[in-house]
Write a structure and sequence with these properties.
With 318 residues, the protein is α+β, with helices and mostly antiparallel strands. It contains 10 helices and 13 strands.
């Protein structure tokens, strides 16, 4: 299948964005219209079409218009159209050809590339085979990463609870019995901000404060449009842990979570995630993306909630 059949243009009109994005298997909060409009000054966006039909949209975070970075957008890169009536072999072949076209005609224009593809991008052969017979420094570096997904479609609170690790079940039961522990879903991003700063300082974590502050503004927009929610755990009336999830296309995605480092309670994070899961069940969402299990402690914690591992790919080139 020849890539010459496909036309690429820079996309600046988002009138039909939702129509394509919501139908794409790679749909996420990071490709939502809210995200695209909020970050549009830092994004390069391309439409790949065959005739009058849009086959793919590429959105890349590039504040300086020279480098592609993974900052802010956990997933970015490629949105494909759904399979519809295409035969499986034809659909795979077309996506393969489009990906080659994207690499050759879009990505190679940038000085540096670093992005995390959505977990529903399975075929990365075009990245593996790019400059196949050349030296290693002219090839893409590919790293497998993992997220954790909880399928809650047609599930209820009891069935979700039964799939959890036994220790987590006991911790949640203790919280339910403790009259000093309560929860709410009120927006208080300042608490989350303070807890996050405390946690990063304690763990000597590096992060871009400017980007984080801008992200908080984005969370406010999501909350105002009912496309996100904050869960807070309190002890004797004082908030000790908060998390924020986005909601898009019937999928919730964990964006931030942190607790008061001066309050020693190992149950707070568990109870916060459990109450967030309960919120998603009440709204009959399809799944929850716990966004990343790429360190031992984080992986152990998030997988204990009955989630399943899902690989995704970090792609870099310079």
């Amino acid at each position: 299948m020849s890539s010459d059949k496909y036309k690429i243009i820079k996309l600046e009109n988002f009138d039909k964005w939702n129509e394509f994005e919501l139908g794409s298997p790679q749909s996420s909060i990071f490709s939502s219209l809210e995200s695209i409009e909020f970050y549009k000054d830092q994004l390069d966006i391309y439409r790949i079409s065959k005739g009058a039909v849009t086959k793919s949209i590429v959105y890349l975070y590039s504040p300086n218009k020279r480098d592609i970075t993974p900052d802010t957008l956990i997933y970015s890169g490629i949105l494909f159209s759904p399979q519809k009536l295409q035969k499986e072999a034809r659909y795979i072949a077309e996506k393969h050809t489009i990906t080659k076209c994207i690499i050759e005609k879009i990505l190679m224009k940038y000085d540096k590339i670093n992005l995390n593809l959505h977990y529903n991008i399975e075929d990365i052969r075009p990245f593996v085979w790019h400059n196949y017979h050349k030296t290693s420094n002219e090839k893409f570096q590919i790293e497998v990463r993992y997220t954790a997904l909880i399928n809650i479609n047609n599930e209820n609170l009891d069935s979700c609870f039964s799939k959890m690790d036994d220790i987590k079940q006991r911790d949640i039961k203790k919280c339910l019995k403790d009259k000093d522990i309560s929860f709410d879903y009120k927006e208080n991003l300042n608490d989350l901000k303070i807890f996050y700063y405390q946690t990063m300082k304690k763990n000597n974590g590096e992060f871009n404060k400017k980007i984080f502050e801008k992200t908080l503004n984005f969370l406010e927009i999501l909350n105002s449009k009912k496309k996100g929610f904050q869960t807070n755990i309190t002890y004797k009336g004082k908030t000790i842990y908060s998390s924020f999830f986005s909601i898009h296309n019937n999928v919730a995605c964990y964006l931030y979570g942190a607790g008061d480092v001066n309050f020693k309670n190992r149950y707070a994070g568990t109870y916060c995630l459990w109450k967030s899961l309960e919120f998603c069940l009440e709204r009959k969402l399809n799944s929850i993306d716990l966004e990343g299990v790429n360190s031992p402690q984080r992986g152990s914690f998030k997988l204990s909630f009955g989630s399943k591992l899902k690989p995704y790919f970090n792609i870099s080139y310079e």
